[in-house]
Recover the amino acids of this structure.
């Protein structure tokens, strides 16, 4: 069984395609079976659960014995290889019929992403990355933007599900809004990170992501040349911040976020 990053990407794409087909094909019925998780706005549909079940089944067959951490069934990151799965990233978009959601499958070694596939069921687009092998969208190599000025940078961001934290986050982002070109909240963290990889956003930052939200997209961003800071790596931005930016604006953006109070939300 090959375990080099390219081989792991192949597995992630193969399994992810099946999950993406299931997620797309079952939307009309899945959205009538909705439960809530951490808060009343944090939802899980029948398709989130079915997608994770399918991914786990297929991985067990293709990669017997390798541990899986998934958003809906849990698990842990262990020493060596772990598969990290978000069966639907952007569940609220999925629920509302906004076609911006993804299945994200990453392989991590000792907690570091080495292979990733982020698949968009609605469009069929497939984003991939292998450590040292670049970031790709449907066979096209990706590179981050050449942004060098914060005042004309386009940023992505997201909110946590808890209302009080969301309020504090909104205040911090409001402080930043006048200092940049504009800000986008698209509702799928994995795809925000892919957008940084493709130069469709100059940067992205958010607090409180789960490992499954960032494990795939962060590898794409890094392989495309972004400065990537993962939860725990940039205490000045807060203990659970995820950050990805084109290198030309990364330092200025970190400073601006700190000034806006991003580190205290
Ligand atoms: C959510 C999305 C959203 C982000 C939230 C995530 P989910 O993931 O990625 O964009 O702002 O923090 O939890 O719940 O749809 O898998
Ligand atoms: Ca999810």
């Amino acid at each position: 069984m090959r375990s080099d990053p390219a081989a792991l990407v192949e597995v992630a794409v193969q399994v992810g395609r099946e999950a993406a087909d299931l997620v797309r094909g079952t939307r009309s019925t899945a959205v009538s079976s909705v439960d809530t998780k951490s808060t009343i706005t944090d939802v899980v549909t029948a398709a989130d659960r079915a997608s994770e079940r399918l991914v786990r089944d297929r991985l067990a067959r293709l990669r017997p014995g390798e541990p899986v951490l998934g958003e809906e069934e849990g698990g842990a990151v262990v020493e060596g290889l772990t598969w990290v799965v978000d069966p639907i990233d952007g569940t609220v978009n999925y629920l509302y019929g906004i076609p911006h959601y993804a299945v994200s499958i990453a392989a991590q070694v000792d907690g570091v992403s080495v292979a990733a596939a982020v698949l968009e069921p609605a469009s069929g687009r497939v984003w991939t990355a292998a450590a040292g092998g670049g970031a790709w969208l449907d066979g096209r190599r990706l590179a981050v933007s050449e942004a060098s000025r914060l005042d004309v940078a386009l940023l992505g961001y997201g909110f946590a599900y808890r209302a009080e934290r969301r309020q504090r986050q909104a205040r911090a982002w409001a402080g930043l809004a006048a200092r940049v070109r504009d800000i986008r909240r698209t509702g799928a963290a994995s795809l925000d990170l892919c957008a940084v990889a493709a130069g469709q956003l100059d940067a992205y930052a958010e607090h409180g992501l789960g490992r499954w939200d960032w494990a795939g997209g962060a590898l794409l961003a890094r392989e495309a040349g972004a400065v990537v800071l993962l939860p725990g790596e940039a205490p000045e931005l807060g203990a659970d911040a995820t950050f990805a930016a084109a290198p030309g604006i990364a330092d200025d953006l970190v400073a601006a976020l700190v000034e806006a109070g991003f580190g205290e939300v």
Remarks:
- The domain at 150-264 is CATH 3.40.190.80 (D-Maltodextrin-Binding Protein; domain 2).
- Helices lie at 5-25, 27-30, 46-62, 91-96, 163-177, 189-198, 211-223, 247-259.
- Residues 5-25 form the longest helix (21 residues).
